[in-house]
Design goal:
seven-stranded parallel sheet; 9 strands; globular; two-stranded antiparallel sheet; binds NADP nicotinamide-adenine-dinucleotide phosphate; Rossmann fold; alpha/beta
């Protein structure tokens, strides 16, 4: 059992029921932060909260919320305020992707992704940043993706949504500095969370090899946020890919990502065309 001194800083983590969000909760609890954990699967949040309370003696509040409903986002913010809590660290992490052709996807599924990854993330940031501005300090981490840097076939809507998150984060980083608020954007590559299953994604052996564990991704995000960086791409292979995207013509990196992220096994792709 760890014996951390209690830290009066509150961190609110969206998408804390699995993957990166769950790991953010563990790492912030280990630093003695009090936590508000948000996601739809309340049972998973409750058991995580129980283990964090007993391992780290921190205060943990569980909020079972469907963030794709904007009225629920407003009510979440109101409940946090009514408890007299001001959030010091906001980890805006909840999101998902869907692999597949643009026309093959159900329109509602595509719009649901846009709703959560763009609109809800914007709403959560707007509401909690207002409280941070009022007290003159705060930290916000937006979880984007390596795919924010490139247009990706079969991940068209997701990559475009994450490009929005990256651009929003970069602009807010500059804009909110004067209010004492740090905004950092985390751009992970494919990682070993619930993401691939939720995206119904074909994970090739190459992608499996490149997959990072959530621990180092989250550690890199927290380190960048504390250092006041504008954005971070965790892991050497992902940094290399970001450099390649930056240094190469669009047609080239788009073609490479189309192959690497193909929904079909590489063996079925001949002459640049999926069979
Ligand atoms: N893992 C990767 O390869 C990867 C790479 C780049 C970026 N990302 C980004 O990282 C973030 C976290 O994803 P992850 O990889 O940790 O995947 P994950 O394990 O599937 O976690 C996604 C989290 O989002 C929550 N969520 C989904 N829909 C929600 C909704 N409507 N309301 C509230 N919470 C909702 C889920 O909780 P409930 O289902 O309980 O609601 C879950 O806690 C996402 O923004 C994702 O796009 C992931």
């Amino acid at each position: 059992m760890h014996t951390k001194t209690k830290n009066n800083n509150w961190a609110l983590i969206t998408g804390a029921s699995s993957g990166f969000g769950e790991e953010f909760a563990r790492q912030y609890a280990a630093q003695g932060h009090s936590l508000v954990l948000v996601a739809r699967r309340k049972d998973r949040l409750e058991s995580l909260a129980e283990s964090l309370r007993s391992n780290y003696q921190v205060e943990v509040i569980v909020e079972g919320v469907d963030l794709s409903d904007l009225e629920s986002v407003r009510q979440l913010h109101q409940r946090v305020q009514e408890r007299g809590i001001t959030i010091d660290v906001l980890i805006n992490n909840a999101g998902y992707g869907l692999q597949g052709g643009f026309q093959d996807a159900n329109l509602n599924d595509a719009l649901g992704m846009v709703q959560l990854d763009i609109e809800s993330l914007t709403a959560v940031t707007h509401l909690f940043a207002a409280d941070m501005r009022a007290k003159g300090s705060g930290k916000i981490l937006l979880v984007s993706s390596l795919l924010a840097h490139v247009a990706v076939e079969s991940f068209a809507v997701y990559a475009a949504a994450k490009a929005y998150v990256l651009r929003l984060g970069e602009a807010l980083h500059r804009e909110m500095k004067k209010d004492g608020i740090t905004v950092t954007t985390l751009c992970p590559g494919l990682s070993d969370t619930g993401f691939a299953a939720a995206a119904q994604m074909h994970v090739t052996p190459l992608l499996k090899l490149l997959m990072m564990k959530p621990q180092p991704v989250v550690k890199a995000g927290i380190r960048a946020l504390n250092a006041g960086r504008i954005s971070v791409v965790p892991g050497l292979p992902n940094k290399f890919m970001a450099l390649f995207i930056w240094a190469s013509p669009r047609w080239l990196h788009q073609a490479v990502f189309a192959q690497v992220m193909s929904p079909k096994p590489i063996s079925k792709i001949q002459g640049g065309k999926a069979s």
